Amino acid sequence: MNSRLLLPLGLLVGLLLALLVLLPWESEEGEPEAVAEHVVAANFTLQTAQGELDFSRLRDNLVLLYFGYTHCPDVCPTSLALLGFALHKLEEDELKQVRAVFISVDPARDSIERLAEYTQYFHPSLIGATGTARQIADIAGQYGVAYSLEQEADEEDYVVNHSSMLYLLDRQGKLHEIIPHGATPDMMVTRIRSLLAQ
């Protein structure tokens, strides 16, 4: 990862975690959105620093999916900090049953190595995943994730506009609910524990 990004990102994550501890956070986006029971996540395979990630092998675990990119200036660090804080709140036996995956919508810049280093800022179990542009588009389309590049022909430092929701999948790989942007760690933990208990 670019060394110029390391210090600002580390400071931002530290500040966000401090605010989470000290301030009473409230979501302005409402409650998680339940989805129809017939919605099933298709199997797909992506690349990670730990090797190939085959989603068909994540059955029997709850899966949390977040789509974003490492150059994101604000939304992704905030959302992932909230997610990381929620994961830290889970008991060890609960965490063993949960897989959290950060899927890059910017495969041109987000290498496997960059994703691995970036995700570690938020939680050691968070997996950074990437693939081809076509693979990412297909997977994002399955979940209704919208994203678009704001890029001039010769521009490398571009922005990717993207939706910012957390997708919670059950043990059978079905999309159980969509957790809105701004959901508190406590809300995430409540939804995870509720699904674990089913």
Task: Give an overview of the whole structure.
This protein has 198 residues and is an alpha+beta fold. It has a single domain, classed as Glutaredoxin. Helix content is 35%, strand content 22%. It contains 6 helices and 10 strands. The strands form 3 sheets. Strands 1-10-9-4-5-6 form a 6-stranded mixed beta sheet, with helices on both faces. Strand 5 (98-104), helix 4 (112-119) and strand 6 (127-129) form a beta-alpha-beta unit. Helix 1 crosses helix 2 and helix 2 packs across helix 6 (185-196). The chain is globular, with a radius of gyration of 16 Å. The termini are far apart. The model is unreliable at 18-29 (pLDDT under 50).
What is the compact description of this entry?
This protein has 198 residues and is an alpha+beta fold. The protein contains 6 helices and 10 strands.
CATH topology title: Glutaredoxin
One letter per element, helices H and strands E, the order comes to HEEEEHHEHEHEEEEH
- Number of helices in the DSSP assignment: 6
User: Using DSSP, what is the number of strands?
Assistant: 10
Tell the overall outline: globular
| Order of strands across the main sheet | 1-10-9-4-5-6
Which percent bin holds the helix content?
Answer: 25-40%
Strand count, sense and barrel status of the largest sheet are: 6 strands, mixed
Low-confidence stretches: 18-29
Number of domains: 1
Q: CATH homologous superfamily name?
A: Glutaredoxin
What structural class do helix, strand and pairing data support? alpha+beta
